[in-house]
């Protein structure tokens, strides 16, 4: 059986606790809404414990055992921080890439929910992260995943169209319906391969390793290798947060020793072979995940970790709409916006109980889901103010670039046909073609749409501010 160890690496850009700020002390600069102080403290610690120490252990074993292979998936925002402040760690990963036995996967640059914001943004973030991996580490990704293993058939085929022949996601029991996760599957809509995380064996390390109440405690490398050898299947994917080694499990638990001895113990079994993700063989079955059953590796294996309650959905809907305003406005605004898409912000707003709630609380720096929600909305308000200020600097140029998604477009029924306008240009073209009397019947609705979404009072205001965009309709102007 082939075994692929996949280590997930991500550290967010956290928001300040804006819910605790008084109105007169709110940040004015977009950079000041982010908590760079806390980020540095955490990243310094995690870098020393995991990204530096654990990677040296892996590098040593790569050099020691010629059949040892591992895989990494590093968010672009983390790689950016490491490349800026921790060059020695980057050198370690460059050395691993040069071994040709370590694979680096592609994912969203900002570890975001960009798939649900806009498909173009999803494409751009995947492309950005892939290019960063290639430019900084020296490895061109061949395989991919979406943030937190969020997956459905459409996501798989989208990544296939981007050139990734293998996609990794969660082995979900109700999707598998009694089948094993330990083999190579195929997307039913396209020909890319799907590898599924064995969450039981993965969580034995990720969650249970240092739990003294666990009936299998302590977990040793030889015991774990024996479990793998006893596991039926063709391809076993063990995927865990890389921070497991030294951060989530303290060094005093023996987690470093476990990581160090594991390759040797696994290689004692002749039928076990380490593998890179892109080396997955021929699929033997379909893994069918329609969009209405979108899965992830978090909590109940769905989207509820980020979009499971009204606060999260409200925050996300505002975030999503702001994308179409932020994108045309240039780097400063758009980069701040993209940092707001980091999935952790929504994760902190979860209202979970039991073991899932404990995990959310462990990662939440905001002091609770309500404070996380209010801080996020405050940050969005500050971003919105900056967007309005930027738009006013050159509103006409902004309107030329501003295009809305389908659900925010202006729709109308003309002689039985539904026609839509998603931009000022489309609206003006549409109005120019309409009979005068029909335009009069929808003018009030058009003005409301312009006021709510374009920061334009009405058609007359548009003609006054941006005459070069105006059309004339059957002898009268607007």
Protein described:
This protein is α/β, with parallel strands linked by helices. It folds into three domains: 2-303, 7-stranded beta/alpha barrel; 307-394; 400-469, no CATH class. It has 19 helices and twelve strands. The strands form three sheets. Strands 1, 2, 3, 8 and 9 form a five-stranded parallel beta sheet that branches. A hairpin with a 6-residue loop joins strand 6 and strand 7 (193-197). The N and C termini lie far apart (71 Å). The model is unreliable at 472-478 (pLDDT under 50).
Walk me through the topology:
Blueprint: E1 2-9, H1 36-64, E2 70-74, H2 76-85, H3 87-98, E3 102-105, H4 119-137, E4 143-144, H5 153-161, E5 166-170, H6 173-176, E6 185-186, E7 193-197, H7 199-206, H8 221-230, E8 235-241, H9 255-266, E9 273-274, E10 285-286, H10 304-307, H11 310-326, H12 331-340, H13 344-347, H14 354-363, H15 369-393, H16 395-401, E11 410-414, E12 417-421, H17 424-433, H18 436-453, H19 459-465
Parallel strand pairs: 1-2, 1-8, 1-9, 2-3, 4-5, 5-7, 6-10
Antiparallel strand pairs: 6-7, 11-12
Helix pairs in contact: 1-3, 1-9, 2-4, 8-9, 11-12, 11-15, 12-15
């Amino acid at each position: 059986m082939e075994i692929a160890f996949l280590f997930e690496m991500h550290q967010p850009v956290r928001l300040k606790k804006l819910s605790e700020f008084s109105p007169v002390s709110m940040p004015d600069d977009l950079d000041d809404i982010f908590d760079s102080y806390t980020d540095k403290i955490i990243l310094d610690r995690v870098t020393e414990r995991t990204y530096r120490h654990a990677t040296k252990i892996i590098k040593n074993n790569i050099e020691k055992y010629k059949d040892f292979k591992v895989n990494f998936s590093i968010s672009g925002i983390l790689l950016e921080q490491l490349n800026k402040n921790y060059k020695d760690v980057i050198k370690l990963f460059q050395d691993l890439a040069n071994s040709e036995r370590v694979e680096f996967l592609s994912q969203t640059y900002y570890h975001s929910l960009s798939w649900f914001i806009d498909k173009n943004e999803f494409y751009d973030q995947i492309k950005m992260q892939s290019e960063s991996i290639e430019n900084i580490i020296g490895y061109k990704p061949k395989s991919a995943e979406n943030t937190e293993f969020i997956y459905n058939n459409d996501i798989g085929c989208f990544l296939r169209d981007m050139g990734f022949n293998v996609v990794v996601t969660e082995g979900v029991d109700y999707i598998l319906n009694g089948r094993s996760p330990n083999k190579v599957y195929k997307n039913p809509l396209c020909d890319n391969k799907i590898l599924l995380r064995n969450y039981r064996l993965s969580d034995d390390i990720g969650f249970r390793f240092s739990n003294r109440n666990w009936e299998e405690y302590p977990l040793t490398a030889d015991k774990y290798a024996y479990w793998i050898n006893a596991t039926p299947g063709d391809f076993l994917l063990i995927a865990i947060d890389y921070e497991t080694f030294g951060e989530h499990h303290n060094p005093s638990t023996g987690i470093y020793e476990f990581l160090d001895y594991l390759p040797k113990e696994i290689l004692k079994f002749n039928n076990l072979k380490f593998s890179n993700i892109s080396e997955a063989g021929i699929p033997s079955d379909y893994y069918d995940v329609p969009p209405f059953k979108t899965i992830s590796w978090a909590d109940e294996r769905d989207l509820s970790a980020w979009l499971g309650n009204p606060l999260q959905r409200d925050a996300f809907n505002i975030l999503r709409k702001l994308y179409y305003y932020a994108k045309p406005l240039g780097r400063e605004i758009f980069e701040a916006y993209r940092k707001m898409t980091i999935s952790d912000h929504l994760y902190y707003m979860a209202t979970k109980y039991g073991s899932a709630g404990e995990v959310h609380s462990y990662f939440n720096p905001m002091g609770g889901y309500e404070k996380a929600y209010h801080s996020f909305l405050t940050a969005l308000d500050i971003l919105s103010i900056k967007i309005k200020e930027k738009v006013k600097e050159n509103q006409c140029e902004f309107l030329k670039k501003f295009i809305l998604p389908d659900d925010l477009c202006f729709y109308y029924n003309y002689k039985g046909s539904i026609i839509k306008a998603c931009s000022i240009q489309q609206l003006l073209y549409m109005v120019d073609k309409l009979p005068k009397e029909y335009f009069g019947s929808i003018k009030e609705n058009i003005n409301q749409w312009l006021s709510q979404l374009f920061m334009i009072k009405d058609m007359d205001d548009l003609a006054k501010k941006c005459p070069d965009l105006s059309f004339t309709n059957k002898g009268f102007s607007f």
